[in-house]
Amino acid sequence: MTKEQFQAEKLYYISFSIAKSMLEKGVIDEEVFATIDEKLLEKYRPVSATLLAGKPLS
Predict the structure, then answer these.
(1) Three-class DSSP labels, the chain
(2) What does the alpha-carbon distance between residue 58 and residue 41 come to, in Å, rounded to a whole number?
(3) Is 57 inside any structural domain?
């Protein structure tokens, strides 16, 4: 993984975490959360998140 790829991964997960927190607090709904995640995937193109997109971790 290059330095740029690592930076993109990091920024994606930080942004995703903020959006997930907003969802859990009821600030946004599932539809908005899905849209945010889609936009973050497009912007950062993280390798690991792209592999896991749409698949539950548990």
Answers:
(1) CCHHHHHHHHHHHHHHHHHHHHHHCCCCCHHHHHHHHHHHHHHHCCHHHHHHCCCCCC
(2) 21
(3) no
The domain in which residue 42 lies consists of: 3-51
- The total number of structural domains that make up the chain: 1
Contact at 8 Å (CB) between 9 and 16?
A: no
Tens-place pLDDT, residues 1-57: 899 999 999 999 999 999 999 999 999 999 999 999 999 999 999 987 655 555 554
Greatest alpha-carbon pair distance for the chain in Å reads: 36
Q: Give the predicted TM-score (pTM) of the model.
A: 0.79
